[in-house]
Design goal:
The chain has six helices and no strands. It is mainly alpha-helical and 131 residues long. The mean pLDDT is 76.
């Protein structure tokens, strides 16, 4: 058994040492089509922006408004597909900033309720009718 361990130990040590060395990849050929990480991320972001725009445009209320304005929904889809990445990002950002129905009223109501509760608890002194 000792003789077996004498031969096996150096082999295991060599295997572990060689296994821990970094593998050097060969450089890509000059004619290969490589893209940078940033370009890949921008392409993904552009596709996500287009999908978000398409998601909004496929809603029934939006479709009804497009038809009421005399716009063909198929033409809108074709134009969205033809947008550049920068244009798609700008349009998606504008769509995200549009106010949703009654969001301002809901926010004002929430602020009122929070102030009312804190005034009742005695933490603030905003409303004179809570005393």
């Amino acid at each position: 058994m000792k003789k077996f361990c004498r031969y096996l130990s150096p082999l295991l040590i060599a295997a572990l040492m060689l296994g821990s060395l970094p593998v050097v990849a060969a450089p890509a050929p000059a004619g290969s089509d490589l893209i940078t990480t940033q370009a890949a991320l921008n392409a993904e972001r552009g596709q996500a922006d287009r999908e978000r725009i398409q998601e909004i445009l496929t809603r029934t209320d939006v479709q009804e408004q497009l038809v009421a304005q005399g716009v063909d929904p198929a033409e809108v889809e074709a134009r969205v597909a033809a947008l550049s990445d920068a244009e798609a990002a700008q349009m998606a950002e504008q769509l995200e900033q549009l106010p949703a129905g009654a969001s301002a009223v809901g926010a004002l109501f929430a602020v009122f309720v929070i102030l009312l509760v804190t005034d009742i608890l005695g933490l603030t002194n905003v409303f004179p009718f809570t005393r």
